[in-house]
Design brief:
heme binding; oxidoreductase activity, acting on paired donors, with incorporation or reduction of molecular oxygen; iron ion binding; 5-stranded mixed β-sheet; 3-stranded antiparallel β-sheet; about 10% strand; Cyt_P450_sf; alpha+beta
């Protein structure tokens, strides 16, 4: 059971673990149990994390796109599934939410589909995390409307001054003339700080948000029973911490933070513990991993394509479009999953009720029929805003405007300081098929 520590205001908060990281735990587990490494035999089984950590996924998806919009994988560590790989095809699937369900009751939104039913102890229940992105209408609509006011244009305008100030202060604190990790020094602090503000989260404990996000967003942990159980324990600790915040805020006047919005919403104030936990996971992973990895991806991309970095330096008016192009190029979440609710035909293929349909956003964002020369960053790209990184239709990311704002302000403040960032050391990518990003990006600052 978690011990208690008092915060400066006197409110006792659970003291939560902060190690090991999810990545370290999985690495150690596989090193100790090599026989448990997942095997991938099908040519188009893109659930394998090695192709993302080694950044060699592009030709596999390009081959699939050339062959058609839909491809069946009969066997994988996550079961059988369909790959949807073309831009228009993903929009089509997203536009039919009743036929292709997001609901956790049908399997949820990731390719992960572990089935431990035969291993459950007597009286033990399956561990499901309902969250509004993993719900169908009408329940999805009510819960989404609850949090949507935190991301309106008026709220973005209200938060801009504070975000800009935090970004400026952080950039001014960066070391010059030495190599440092951009992920650790910039991407994580900026996104974790933003999450803490959105939740009105105790500032001194904001590092917990990064820790919880990493454990919640790593789909491969589900393939190892021990690690899956460890993740459950960590998420329960997270829920206990937030329950304390909930109880504190329940006795206060309504405020614009997300916890207060949930408390004062008829659609969300009666959530059971697992649903509360699920929505926290959604908001933390959605608000942390996506923006964080695009902040790193921008720097890596500009270093890879120095002509585009020069354009950015010479034309600050291109920054808003550069944000859209970098979001397209990075695609911070690789996929979303849907489940067929009835037998149907899709692009000439017969889909059975219960089939898992996986929409690969990072493939759609490299679709040659939509984006010319898609494997290159082009900050003048006229249709960069057509990227599908935030999804499409009723489940399009509710926090997209906030992500765009944070990225725009980062580029603006870098330009104001004439800051040029070079990759100058190790580059380590995330080993995962869901979150697509960087664990480490060693850089050095110069000026233009």
């Amino acid at each position: 059971m978690a011990t208690k520590v008092a915060d400066p205001a006197g409110q006792e908060m659970p003291k939560c673990r902060t190690s090991p990281t999810a990545f370290d735990a999985l690495t150690q587990y596989l090193a100790a149990n090599p026989q448990n490494r997942p095997t991938h035999s099908h040519k188009f089984d893109v659930s394998r994390s090695d192709i993302y950590v080694e950044d060699r996924w592009q030709p596999i998806f390009a081959e699939m796109r050339a062959k058609g919009p839909l491809h069946y994988v009969p066997e994988s560590p996550f079961g059988a599934y369909w790959n949807v790989v073309q831009h228009k095809a993903i929009q089509h699937v997203e536009s039919l939410p009743e036929l292709f369900s997001s609901s956790w009751e049908h399997g949820g939104i990731t390719i992960t589909d572990p089935d431990w039913e035969q291993e459950l102890a007597e009286g033990e229940e399956r561990f499901q995390l309902p969250m509004f992105i993993a719900m169908d209408r009408p329940k999805h609509t009510g819960q989404r409307r609850t949090v949507a006011p935190a991301f309106t244009p008026a709220e973005m305008k209200r938060m801009e001054v504070e975000i800009r100030q935090r970004t400026a202060e952080l950039l001014d604190s960066l070391p010059e003339g030495e190599v440092f990790d951009w992920v650790e020094k910039v991407s994580i602090p900026l996104t974790t700080g933003m999450l803490a503000i959105l939740f009105d989260f105790p500032w001194e404990d904001r590092h917990l948000l990064t820790y919880w996000s990493d454990w919640a967003g790593d789909t491969e942990l589900s393939l190892a029973r021990d690690l899956d159980m460890q993740r459950r324990e960590i998420l329960h600790e997270m829920a206990a911490y937030f329950q304390q915040l909930w109880m504190k805020k329940a006795n206060e006047e309504p405020s614009p933070d997300l916890i207060s919005m949930m408390i004062h919403s008829p659609a969300m104030n009666q959530m059971d513990p697992l649903e509360f936990m699920g929505n926290l996971v959604l908001l933390i992973v959605g608000g942390n991993d996506t923006t964080r990895n695009t902040m790193s991806g921008m720097i890596h991309g500009f270093d890879k394509f120095p002509d585009q970095r020069k354009l950015f330096e010479e034309n600050p008016d291109l920054i808003p479009n550069a944000v859209q192009e970098c979001i397209r190029y990075q695609t911070p979440l690789s996929h979303m999953r849907r489940t067929a609710t009835e037998d149907t035909e899709l692009f000439g293929e017969q889909i059975k009720k219960g089939d898992k349909v996986v929409m690969w956003y990072l493939s759609a964002n490299r679709d040659e029929t939509v984006f010319d020369n898609p494997d290159k960053i082009d900050i003048t790209r006229e249709n960069a805003r057509r990227n599908i990184s935030f999804g499409y239709g009723v489940h399009r990311c509710v926090g997209a405007r906030l992500a765009e704002l944070q990225l725009r302000l980062l580029l603006e403040e870098m330009h104001k300081r004439r800051m040029r960032v070079h990759v100058a050391g190790d580059v380590e990518r995330v080993r995962a098929n869901f979150v697509h990003g960087f664990r480490k990006l060693e850089v050095e600052i110069t000026h233009f």
